[in-house]
Structure formats: C-alpha cells, structure tokens
Amino acid sequence: MRTSIATVSLSGSLTEKLAAASRAGFDGVEIFENDLLASPLTPEDIRARCADLGLSIDLYQPMRDIEAVPPEEFARNLRRARHKFELMGRLGADTVLVCSSVSPLAEDHDALAAAQLRQLADLAQDFGIRVAYEALAWGRHVNTYDHAWRIVEAADHPALGTCLDSFHILARGSDPKGIEDIPGEKIFFLQLADAPLMAMDVLQWSRHYRCFPGQGGLDVTGLVRHVIAAGYQGPLSLEIFNDVFRQAEAGPTAVDAHRSLLVLQEAAGLAALPEPVVPTGAAFVELVTADAEPASALLGALGFARVARHRSKPVDLWQQGEARVLVNTGPAARRDGTSLAAVGLESPDPSGAARRAEALLAPVLPRRLAPEDALLDAVAAPDGTELFFVATQDAAQRPAPPHWRADFVDVPHQDAAPHGVTRIDHLALTQPWHEFDEAVLFHRSVLGLHAQDSVDVADPYGLHRSRAVTNADGSVRIALGVGPAPTEDGARAQHIALATDDVVATARAFRDAGGRLLAVPANYYDDLAARHEFPDGELETYRELGILYDRDAYGEFRHCYTHTVGRVFFELAQRDGGYRGYGAQNAPVRLAAQHAVR
Amino acid sequence: MRTSIATVSLSGSLTEKLAAASRAGFDGVEIFENDLLASPLTPEDIRARCADLGLSIDLYQPMRDIEAVPPEEFARNLRRARHKFELMGRLGADTVLVCSSVSPLAEDHDALAAAQLRQLADLAQDFGIRVAYEALAWGRHVNTYDHAWRIVEAADHPALGTCLDSFHILARGSDPKGIEDIPGEKIFFLQLADAPLMAMDVLQWSRHYRCFPGQGGLDVTGLVRHVIAAGYQGPLSLEIFNDVFRQAEAGPTAVDAHRSLLVLQEAAGLAALPEPVVPTGAAFVELVTADAEPASALLGALGFARVARHRSKPVDLWQQGEARVLVNTGPAARRDGTSLAAVGLESPDPSGAARRAEALLAPVLPRRLAPEDALLDAVAAPDGTELFFVATQDAAQRPAPPHWRADFVDVPHQDAAPHGVTRIDHLALTQPWHEFDEAVLFHRSVLGLHAQDSVDVADPYGLHRSRAVTNADGSVRIALGVGPAPTEDGARAQHIALATDDVVATARAFRDAGGRLLAVPANYYDDLAARHEFPDGELETYRELGILYDRDAYGEFRHCYTHTVGRVFFELAQRDGGYRGYGAQNAPVRLAAQHAVR
C-alpha cells in the first residue's frame, strides 16, 4: 500500500521534513498547517518541492472547531474554510482533515453537526476537495469513530467521509471491529500511531507519547486489518506527536518511521518481506582501538588466548571456549579509546538475514575485504553497530558457505589455561537517548528476536532504561539500554557479558592474572545477608571478589565486572537453574561503583 | 521547624548528597537505602560524616512488604528487619519507614497486619528504634492514611507510629482534615512532596513527577496545617522522586528544596520571613558585551539615545521613554557576544526586598562599586541573572535612598527623535532546562510576583514551555521559558519586549533607521486573513513589517522582532484593551523564522 507521514512527526523546517520523508521511501505526506505557516516557501513552492521529491500531498490538516455551532459562528467558519480551500488549491492537496469540535460553543446536536458538515462539503466540492471528519478522543461531543461515522452517514454528501486514527480509536478502548461496517470508499483517510500503555490524560498522552506502530502497546495491526476489510484504498499514514522525535534528526526518524510501516504491513498480511532468519548464537564481538595493548591485556587476564590473525587486516582473534573477541587496529579505530564496533551473529542463512535487513531499510555495509576473503553479509544497527551475519559453525545442513574463520590464520600461542569462560552470555549496548524505541523495533523486526519487558534503573546521575531482546533458547541475548543525556564527550559504554559455570573460579583466576575487578561496597553484602541466607563463607567470597547476586522465579545469577578499557568493560556471569534476567536489580550499585572509579 | 530531605531527592553519590543538603541549610536527612548500599562509606563513616556536617539522620527508609503475610514469610521478614535494625544502630538512625505492602503474598487482614507490626515494633524497641508505618497510594490493601492509622492504633505499641506523606495522601484525593484525629505523638514522621496535577497512573506519577512544595498543584500547605494541628513535633522532610532532579546538580537542587520548605512554613504560619516587597516596575536591563558596537547600533535604530555614562565603570545608559538599557563592557563581559546579565527592579523598599531574597537563600551579590556610588541591593536569580533592587523614582513617601541614576553622568547626545517606545513591556528569560520550576517558585516567593498558567509551544526542533510571572498592575512582567536541551554552545537567548502605543510607526522608524526586522512567512498572513477580518490595507502593513497578531478575551496584541545580537534580541509590543498574554500562539512562527536566519 502507499505510505505517508504527517510532517508534524518529523523535526526541522518543512524543507528538511520533506527531504527526510522522501529519502526514507515514503510515497506521500500530510502537510501539518503549522509547518506550512512557519515556512518561507509559498504553497506553490511546496507543491513543486513535493513533486520533485516524488511525494504526493495526501492530506492538509487540521481544520478545527467547525461543526455544531450557532449560525453566525458557522458563517465565520465557512469563511475560514474558503480561505483554506483556496490555499489547498495552490498546494495541490485534495483532502482536508476536520477534527471533531472541542469548542465550548459546540452543541451536542448530531443533526446540526451533519447539516453544517454537509454545507462544508458542498463548498469543498466546488474546489474539488474532500472533507475527512475525524473523532478526536477528547472531542467535546463527538469522540468515538462510530459517532463520527453516524454524523458523516447522516450528512450523506459525496465530498464528506471519515478519517480514522488508530490512536484516537484504541486509546479510548473502542472496539475496532465496527470499522468493517463503514463502506470502504467513505473512509477517506487512515492515520496510524502507537503509544505505550499509560494510564494518563488522553490528550497529554496523545500530544507527547505517541510512537511508531510496533513501538507501543496498542494493537495497530489489528485495527489496520479491520480497515482493509472495510475496503479502504487510501494510504497508510503516520501521525506521531512525540517530544523525543521533535528533537531528533529528521532523517533517521523518517527511516525508522517507514520501517515501522513495512513491519506493520507484513504483520497485517498486506505485504511480503523476506522471512526473518533468527540468529542462533553470537559468533564474535569486534573491538576497534588505535592501541591494542589495554584490550589485549584485559583479554589475556580473562583467560582468552590470541589464537589467530586476519590474513589481510590488522585484526587479532582472541578465543576462550566458544567466546571470540576480535581486536581491530585498522582504519576504523578511533583515536580516543577502545569501543565495540561490530557483532558477529551466527545465522542459518546469512544472506537471507541480510536480505531481510535490507528490505527493512537497514544500511547494507560495504564488504571491505581482500579478494580471497569470505563474503560477509553485514548491516548497520540504528546506533551504528555493525551486525555481521555469519554461517553457523555446524553448517552440515546446507552447502557450506565460505566461513569467516577461514580468513584468520592460526598463530602460535601459549595455551593459556582458560579461566572457565564458555561463551558470550549477553551484550549490553547503550543506545543514543532518542533511539531506544527504534533500536528495540529494529532488533525485533530485522533479527526476529523477542523483546522482554523494559526495566527502569536509577543510577546516581539519572534514570536508565533497559530492554533485552533474545532468541528462543537464549543463545543470543542483547540488553539494549539508554541512560541520562550524554556527557560532554557523548561516550556510551558497552559491555560484553561472558558466561562461566563457576564465576568464583573465573573471577579469582582473572584477579590472579592481574585483572582488576570492580569493587562493590560492603553495605551491599550486609543487605544481601538481610535478604537471603547463604552457606557459610559464601558471602565473604562474594565480598572479596565483588560478586553480585540475584534470583528470580527460575534460578540464580552471580556476576561481577572488570575495569573499563576505553568505552568497553566485561562482565562475568553465572546463570543457574534457568534465571532469565540480567541482574538489573544490582545495576544501581554497579553504576555507582563505576562512577566512583572514574 | 526542623527541616530534612531524603537523599533520593538529590543527585550524585551519598557524599555529594549529604554535602549539598548541609550547605543548603537542612537540619537532617532521610537515608534512602539504595544510596547507602551504593556507597563505599561504612554506616559508621556515614554517621560521622553527618555529624561533621551538622545533619541528623531523621529516618532510614524504606522497609517494604513486611506485614499481613503467612507466618513463615513473616519470620523471614523479621530476620531481615533484625539485620536492618543492627545497621541502623551503626548508622545512628532511630526511626525506620515501613511502607504498606505491595506483595502478592499480603492478605487483606487488618488484625494480622496489626499483630505482625506489633511484633516488629517489639523487636525494634529492643534496638531503641521506632517504626513509622506509611500507606503507599498503591499499597495492595492499605493505601490511605486513615487505614494505616487504624492498623497502628489497633497494634497499640509505643514503638509503632505512622508516617504521613503529602503525595500519597493528596494524590488519592483523601481529605487531610482527618489527620487532626491522630494523636500528634503517634505521627512519627512527615514527608512532603508536591506534584503537577496530572491524570495518570499514581505510581508513575509518584516515581517521576514529584516536585518541591509550591512547584506543583497539590495543597501541601493545607496538609501541613492539619498535621501541626494534630500536634506533630518532628521535622518537615522532603521526599521527591523526579527524573529531572536525578540529572541536575545536587547543590542548586538542595538550595531550591530548602527554599520551598521556607516558603511552605511561611504560608502555613509556622515561620516568619521578611515581608515580600513586590517590584513596581523595570528600572533597567543591563547587557554585557566585550564589543558595544552591535548593541549600540541596535539600540540607536530602535530610537534609544545614549544619555549617560557611569562615573566609574564602562557602562553606558541608553534611554527612550521610561525604557532604559545599560550596556556594560566591563570585566563581566563575555568574549562570545552580547547577553542579558542584570535586571533593575524598581522597589518601594530595596533593602527590604534584598532581606527577603537573602532569607530565601538567594545569593547576595557583592556590591562592586566605587566609594561614592549608591549602595545597590542585588541578588542572583537561579539562572544567574542579577536582580538589582532600586528605589522607585517617585520616592517621596520615604527618606530617599541614594538613587542609582545619580551614579551616571549625563553625556551630550543628539536628541534622536524617539520612535515611540514608552517602557519595557516584559522580559523573556530562557532558563536552563532543569531549573524551570525552581525559577518560577523563586520569582513568586522572593519577588512576590503572581505566576500565570504555563504554555507549551512547539518549535521546529523541540518543545518550549513558558510561564509568566507578573505584579498586579502588569508593570513588571517576566516570561520564564525553557526550550529543547541546549545546543553545543549552551546558548540561551533572552529578549526584551519594548512597549509602544503604535507598533507600526515604531517598527517603520526602526527599519528606516537601518534596523533589521525578523521576516515572517507570507503563509502566516494568509492564515491571519482566514481567521480574522482586518480593515483594508492593515494586513499588508503587517506583512511588510513582519508584525504578528493575537487577541484574547480582553484585547489585542501586535508585535514584531529585531534581529539577534549575540544572545539578545528585542520585541516591539503593542497591547490594546487589556490583552494579558505574550503572543505565545505566534511563537512557533517566530522561532522557525529565527532558526531560518541562523
């Protein structure tokens, strides 16, 4: 179906908004009146600009407080409408949104509303314009879609139809099933928005917290199915008011917006995308750094061995158990420290995974490889982290693609006694503050991962939010997080949690090898003693090593942290009995301890 | 009364929080358990630190999910409590907060709750500790203060009392009158928080939106009156969870917090402060700049004449009608442009105004003056703007203090034909984003100004909020604003609105004198024509000069803007017929036009 977006959903000048919508692949836009008023472009300029960008103008909006008012007020409203219809002619827009009245002058009088809307439609028809009447959830007398439709039906004018908005309908808890009773050709427009489920004033909720479909808690897909069943032929259009989007750059927001409509269409059975290929494991993480020494020392102390080197690039492969870390000192390395640049995900079908990512607007990365290297399928996540899709190691089922590991040449190494790390438990990736919801939707839709509930955590300097995405067996776990507004240098820390079956032994071996463990305050252990009973000596061991403890309904979690190198640190994690979390309850203590050593 | 603050209300490490509370003048603190857990200080260290800082530890909090549970669970809870009582002994805290249970294990069984709380109190008594039981607004079975009190009364134990929290009581709409029926000695503690009135889930409201008394919409003062009438003798303690405070610096937040308690005590009749002395006019504004040329050129084009120069400092006085602007090129001038540094407020009692400001913790500014200069009473507003209190020009009623104007020596000047500016209409001062509510409370309480409703305005890159404070006759108007997170250079624009009886003539004279008026898009005037009818030619004039138009129930407003010099620009404003606003409806267009010329 055709896709469209209201200019109010994006930040910047009207010129910037239109360019962003076009680049992201939208077919059309709704022109929000205030964006036009504030623009130095004339309506004719805007029309030409849209044509150049391949954008249709699907709606002009909104016209307010028109109907069910005393005659002299309605005469003023018609005068105002005539001005706007002339403007729409210059703009080349043929549909106008009329919101149900919130005016104290409006009467609770459906027949009057219908009669006046019929008059408005008569005038509109003279200009070749259609009027789409929409119930605002906080409309004074008309605030449900079926009520708005009854008035449109009673007015019975060919230039008058209704506009449906998923937020207004679902936020009030209306049953969208009844949409199917509206003739499709009378649904002049469909606006889509999601929102997190919040018990708050609906107007405030609408004005500040709307989000793209799939980012909130409303069943937008179900609503769209009903609208399609009714026979609607118009575009799917996003109208999102959100305080965060207002401040974020228009370009990436428009891409995220368009992705949400693609995912929605797939879910509603309106479009086919390449099937998701769920990753089956973390093949490697890649650190980039100008100076490999601090990261190498840390990996060595953790019990990793430098087992191989890339045959054409300055990249070392460190391994312990099934955990692999690449250390790259190539051109991508930043001068200012070590950072996590890429994640290798094991995939049963790497090129299929990349095809889906590309169809969902993920930037496909150039394959910077020597001729003899394995072709790697890679895309960028919203925060810029590179995701490589690599063939599962056990590729017996399918014709083996060239394997990434073959590009690495073994190097002689001391078989350092490993410290018990078995694999990567999870990755914790801090997102830019305005990209958290987008990152969750990206990982769910592009990678086919499941999102757990989000968790709020207070640290000494602000509130952190975190939400984990995982595959079914937990062999891929990524904790996406967002913290206080970035500090001066905008640094976002990332961390890699390594699984061990005996965190005490692994932590001790790390420390004995010269590693520095994050010190945890003694008060934390006094509190643990108050909350749980431990075998003799166990708490003393935790205290000595800085091991934190948590339990849930399924099992137990013990974990500790290394010092930070650049923007990266490691966690050692022991999960027992099916524990499902990430120790979020301990995060305030960990964050405070990290602040203290900075 | 003694004042106290919960450590959770301030940002930073526990050490930073304690220092900030002490410096701001609090008598005591509530130690929030998570702050203690995350601190490297032992309980004994914290006790000593508090003693050094002159802070008592008034409360340890919270203990959760204690009561009305099955016996084996209660045994675990008593074990946990014993640990905490031992800790409190080390800390030197003698009162613990117990919140009503939210546990799914808790039964709806008041007698069981009372019996178990009695057992808890028995144990507490052995440690010399008192238990203060509080109803959370979202407690599973106990969520009103009278219910919590009935259970405490039934338990009938000398070491068990109740804790009252203004948020939990007022957010649920409970009538605080009933507090007077509780014996004062059984009210072990009083926690105070305000909150903006929002229809939302009470737990989310409580966790994220609490604010200091007087900054929200709850009648905290009325509640305190009832608690005092009941005979309560303990401290007034602030417990505020707020996402903004979590990120703001602890020092200024603690000062704002303490100011709110001083104002509250005055309002509740518990303490006397020097009376507010409401300013009667804007005597001058002071711009500081390293280069006086751009500001002087702008003032000249506006029709101001340079009438005098300070006898000992590099400060020029520009005047037109009763509007006065000082241009200071002295040491305070920043290298990076012109900014608004100070406001002179006419006051019937300058030193009285300064005494009140000082009593309300406003920093008193050094009087950097030559020996013969008039003594100026000056304090700093929360955003750093200097406020000078100067004697009203007509000081016939009282022994005239030396007048600030006497420090300026007239300079010969061409009597530039004035352009019709009569006085300063209002000042628009953009606040740092985390100090908006504090600034409003400061201007209300320190200056005795009245705060109007706050207004939200969208600009292309984010949401702005603005709230005006005024004196009774509108001769002092200050529009406090807050905008999107600061840009790279953190610049906050300020502007000075100049009153004129004929904005068209003044704007034209400004333009003819070489001034640059902000250009307003043509689309704005098309919209004005749709909304209102104007006499022939009037809109064309507005369009030519970039004059914006608004009306309210009282009258009309016409205004336009100059270009920006450094961080400052001017507005020309014509108010007719008692218009009360500031043209907020036009702000998006103005802001977009200003973004466009940047």
TrEMBL record, chains A, B:
Named cofactor requirement(s): a divalent metal cation
VOC domain mapped to chain residues: 281-392, 423-575
SUPFAM superfamilies xref list: Glyoxalase/Bleomycin resistance protein/Dihydroxybiphenyl dioxygenase, Xylose isomerase-like
Annotated EC: 4.2.1.118
Binding site for a divalent metal cation: E134, D165, Q191, E239
Listed pathway(s): Aromatic compound metabolism; 3,4-dihydroxybenzoate biosynthesis
Sequence positions that bind Mg(2+): H426, H495, E571
Keyword Aminoacyl-tRNA synthetase carried by entry: no
Superkingdom, natural source: Bacteria
UniProt similarity note: Belongs to the bacterial two-domain DSD family.
Protein purpose: Catalyzes the conversion of 3-dehydroshikimate to protocatechuate (3,4-dihydroxybenzoate), a common intermediate of quinate and shikimate degradation pathways.
Name of the featured protein: 3-dehydroshikimate dehydratase
Organism: Streptomyces spongiae
Organismal lineage: Bacteria, Bacillati, Actinomycetota, Actinomycetes, Kitasatosporales
